[in-house]
Specification:
By secondary structure, the chain is an all-alpha fold. It has helices spanning 2-16, 21-30, 42-48, 50-58, 64-72, 76-88, 98-106, 111-127, 132-142, 148-156, 167-175, 183-197, 201-211, 217-223.
Length: 227
């Protein structure tokens, strides 16, 4: 745990060194003042903790004690570090890692971390053919979770997978959430369909033809953007 604390302190100091209080105010406001910010733009933030990411990727094992400390920090950029660190070791992750990652999806919830972490979890299924059924079963469970952010994570977890998308699963997860009046769910439905329309527009058209009456206008509008 001592090493985890040392690494956490190093990342925190690296970010604090380039903090911009003038930027922090509008950045916090954009996230509805739910989180404190150092006020660092994405490129500068990643530059600040670049060496920490390199060291994290070189380590023989994933230090979740370190990531837990970072995610528990009051500054939002520290949660972004966790997302970037996990993305950096994406190909090493297995379904067993989800038990460590899921708490990050369930705490300090907002679209910024949810949309980064769901992509990390989704791609675990691409690391090994044996992993995919396990991830897909998790997503079926998440798609029915009482917490709408978990449902959003499930709906969007295949975003950007292109030809590796499982369209039957995509349809199943969306169908579980049709009729919702939650903005972030309806946005996710439209976003996931819009992304897949870049790969298989005919499939998305067929899905819309069969489900449009059950879908929110926002979902249809988003899904139709490239059709």
């Amino acid at each position: 745990m001592k090493q985890a604390n040392q690494k956490y302190t190093a990342v925190k100091q690296a970010l604090a060194a380039v903090a911009d209080s003038a930027r922090a105010v509008p950045m916090a406001a954009y996230m509805r003042n739910q989180f404190a910010f150092y006020g660092i733009p994405a490129a500068a933030r990643r530059q600040a903790y670049k060496e920490a990411i390199k060291a994290f990727k070189r380590a023989p094992a994933i230090d979740y004690d370190f990531l837990n400390l970072c995610f528990g920090d009051s500054h939002r950029e520290m949660q972004y570090f966790v997302v970037d660190a996990l993305a950096g070791v994406q190909r090493r992750l297995t379904p067993d890692d989800v038990r460590h990652i899921e708490p990050y999806l369930r705490h300090k919830q907002w679209w910024d971390t949810i949309d980064g972490l769901d992509k990390v979890v989704g791609r675990i299924g691409l690391n090994d053919p044996a992993y995919r059924p396990k991830i897909e079963e998790m997503m079926r469970s998440w798609a029915q979770d009482a917490n709408f952010w978990m449902r959003r994570a499930a709906i969007d977890h295949q975003r950007g997978m292109k030809e590796q998308t499982n369209p039957e699963l995509l349809a199943e997860l969306i169908e579980m959430n049709l009729g919702s009046d939650e903005f972030f769910i309806n946005k996710a439905i439209g976003w996931s369909l819009r992304e897949y329309s870049k790969t298989d527009p005919d499939w998305v058209r067929d899905f819309l033809d069969g489900h449009q009456r059950q879908m929110a206008h926002l979902s249809v509008s988003e899904a139709s953007k490239y059709l």
